[in-house]
Amino acid sequence: MEVEETNSVDNAWAMKIPKFTPDDNPHGLLEESKFATLFPKYREQYLKECWPLVQKILSEHHIVAELDLIEGSLTVKTTRKTWDPYIIIKARDFMKLLSRSVPFEQASRVLDDEIGCDIIKINSFVRKKETFLKRRQRLIGPQGVTLKSIELLTECYVLVQGNTVSAVGPYKGLVQVRRIVEDTMKNIHPMYNIKSLMIKRELMKDPRLKNESWDRFLPTFKSKNVPRKQPKKKANKKPYTPFPPPQPESKIDKELATGEYFLKEDQKKAKIHHEKQEKQAQAKRVRDEQRQKDFIPPQEKIEKPTTSSTTTVDVDQLKAKMKKFTKRKSLK
């Protein structure tokens, strides 16, 4: 038996896979395969409306679909006429996408040979809920602009729903979508990956750069250590001791220490009554003091009389001024 030589493939994405036809498997399948998927309550109305279309598109591939509204499950299974062995996996993915709020028009694309789907779980990347919501919103972008740009560059339909991201499209695009989503949840902004995809698309048009490295054209992400906000009040840690803390005293221990344990019931009641009266008297005293404050007149400020400095008058100088004044008057 001769063994064919297999050469290395430079670009696996460029390979054309031959189409699988009924002539390739004329005898059909030997065993029946079956998959079931649960769906949430809010998807029940939509699934009831589009279920005739689901059954129609699956019947073309000889797959039976069942909708159980009581259990809330979607079931797909093969028949004797089913000739494609992988179509049941495609049908299972189709049911998963429908249960995860993907519209029928986009989910039905999974049944094509060159189209796949990927459901990415994003809740395990971040512990805090606030951080998770911020990074998930960063993936969507303002008014969904970032998500739309990812769809245009990867040629995939992307839906962010709860703790998962569902993607439908070609397999090469699904790899890029997963990388963008995981990097975003690891605190790398999606614009870095979007920019690198745009640059790669332009570089692919130039045949001269086919065998060269594109690293010098692509943006590099540098992680910055942003100082975290320190708490205002730092709790002083107590020195470590291997011994456990002392056991708190019980009510009986306290009574034994004060001597109340040996008192009779009448004496205990009388003591409690006396303590209660003392508390009431003290509270009454405080209330009376508060009431009397309104009747106490405020202290008036007494202004001290200002002492004017005594001025000495020169009599001779005054006489000379008066003589000059009389002379001027007589001349006039």
Automatic annotation (TrEMBL):
<keyword id="KW-0690">Ribosome biogenesis</keyword>
<keyword id="KW-0539">Nucleus</keyword>
<keyword id="KW-0687">Ribonucleoprotein</keyword>
<comment type="similarity">
    <text>Belongs to the KRR1 family.</text>
</comment>
<feature type="compositionally biased region" description="Basic residues">
    <location>
        <begin position="225"/>
        <end position="237"/>
    </location>
</feature>
<keyword id="KW-0694">RNA-binding</keyword>
<keyword id="KW-0217">Developmental protein</keyword>
<dbReference type="InterPro" id="IPR048550">
    <property type="entry name" value="KRR1-like_KH1_euk"/>
</dbReference>
<dbReference type="Pfam" id="PF21800">
    <property type="entry name" value="KH_KRR1_2nd"/>
</dbReference>
<dbReference type="GO" id="GO:0032040">
    <property type="term" value="C:small-subunit processome"/>
</dbReference>
<dbReference type="GO" id="GO:0006364">
    <property type="term" value="P:rRNA processing"/>
</dbReference>
<dbReference type="InterPro" id="IPR036612">
    <property type="entry name" value="KH_dom_type_1_sf"/>
</dbReference>
<feature type="compositionally biased region" description="Basic and acidic residues">
    <location>
        <begin position="250"/>
        <end position="304"/>
    </location>
</feature>
<feature type="region of interest" description="Disordered">
    <location>
        <begin position="220"/>
        <end position="315"/>
    </location>
</feature>
<keyword id="KW-0175">Coiled coil</keyword>
<comment type="function">
    <text>Required for 40S ribosome biogenesis. Involved in nucleolar processing of pre-18S ribosomal RNA and ribosome assembly. Binds to RNA. Required for female germline development, cell viability during eye development and for survival of dividing cells and epithelial cells during early wing disk development.</text>
</comment>
<comment type="subunit">
    <text>Monomer. Component of the ribosomal small subunit (SSU) processome.</text>
</comment>
<dbReference type="InterPro" id="IPR048548">
    <property type="entry name" value="KRR1-like_KH2"/>
</dbReference>
<dbReference type="InterPro" id="IPR048549">
    <property type="entry name" value="KRR1-like_KH2_euk"/>
</dbReference>
<dbReference type="InterPro" id="IPR004087">
    <property type="entry name" value="KH_dom"/>
</dbReference>
<protein>
    <recommendedName>
        <fullName>KRR1 small subunit processome component</fullName>
    </recommendedName>
</protein>
<feature type="compositionally biased region" description="Low complexity">
    <location>
        <begin position="306"/>
        <end position="315"/>
    </location>
</feature>
<keyword id="KW-0698">rRNA processing</keyword>
<feature type="domain" description="K Homology">
    <location>
        <begin position="114"/>
        <end position="186"/>
    </location>
</feature>
<dbReference type="InterPro" id="IPR041174">
    <property type="entry name" value="KRR1-like_KH1"/>
</dbReference>
<dbReference type="Pfam" id="PF17903">
    <property type="entry name" value="KH_KRR1_1st"/>
</dbReference>
<dbReference type="GO" id="GO:0003723">
    <property type="term" value="F:RNA binding"/>
</dbReference>
<dbReference type="InterPro" id="IPR024166">
    <property type="entry name" value="rRNA_assembly_KRR1"/>
</dbReference>
